[in-house]
Amino acid sequence: MRILIAEAEHRHYAELLQQQAPELQLISAADPAELRSHAAECPVWLGQPDLLAELLRTGARPQWLQSTWAGITPLLAADLPRDYRLTRAVGIFGQVMAEYVLCHLLAHQRELFARLAAQVEQRWDNRLPQSLNGRRVLIVGVGEIGLAVAQFLAPFGVELRGIASQPRHLAPFLEVAALADLPRLAAEADYLINLLPDTPATQNIYNAALFTQLKPTALLINAGRGSAVVDQELCQALEQGLLAGAVLDVCRQEPLPAGHPFWTTRHLLLTGHSAAPTDPSLLVQLFVQNLKRWQRGEVLRGEVDFNKGY
């Protein structure tokens, strides 16, 4: 079977796949023209959504496409076909995303950047920090990654609440409510963590109206999608002290253009879409497992419902 690999790290993916499934015929290249010339003869595609979206625009079509990203937004563009099976990367980001979130919770709780500023100014700062224990954490997006983050944070004694498409009972959360309850739960949160995908329902939900509900000591972490945040309204809220800070891993436009207000807004940290990078070895394991399912006509892990957008 021929597998098309369209990835920035295509050689590494090809090596890992060859080790796990030597019977596969792999087509991988950095040259888009070479990929286009082979696309039609490969029933299965593996790679990053932005590159594969361009292949789809040439008229070629896979039977099944495995994304190496958790997000598949480029493949949902209105001008692209949807008559193929699409799976996103699942089961490989929980640990690394949880580490990212915990890193910034601790940095904020321990006032790490304020202490660095004090050191630069040669000013002794002996304020005593408080513990994460008892802090209220709201995870917006209680999917596989959100649940993994919650399980990672639970031993630190935080109070966990979540937002999902539908209310549900799910340990270790004290409450999981619907998106309509975001203002209520956000108003009580010390830490507001967005992990939502990009769908029409999740766009622009972090806006001026919501920011007025937050505690002035709250921290917003967005590791979901940049479209969830209204940029200028977040900057204004930070300047007005409506929340204590924001950590943004994702932006509406990436890379962030020069002159964007995010670069200079106080109490805003950019982390350059680095929160949860794909581990190629884990992704290849997922792909090989899904390939066996696909060959047997079974349900695939991470299969996307085009109508839902995830």
From TrEMBL:
A GO term, aspect molecular function? oxidoreductase activity
Q: Which UniProt keywords apply?
A: NAD, Oxidoreductase
Q: Which CDD domains match?
A: 2-Hacid_dh_1
Q: Has UniProt tagged this entry with the keyword Oxidoreductase?
A: yes
Q: Where is the D-isomer specific 2-hydroxyacid dehydrogenase NAD-binding domain?
A: 104-275
UniProt feature coiled coil, ranges: none
Question: What is the designated name of this protein?
Answer: D-2-hydroxyacid dehydrogenase
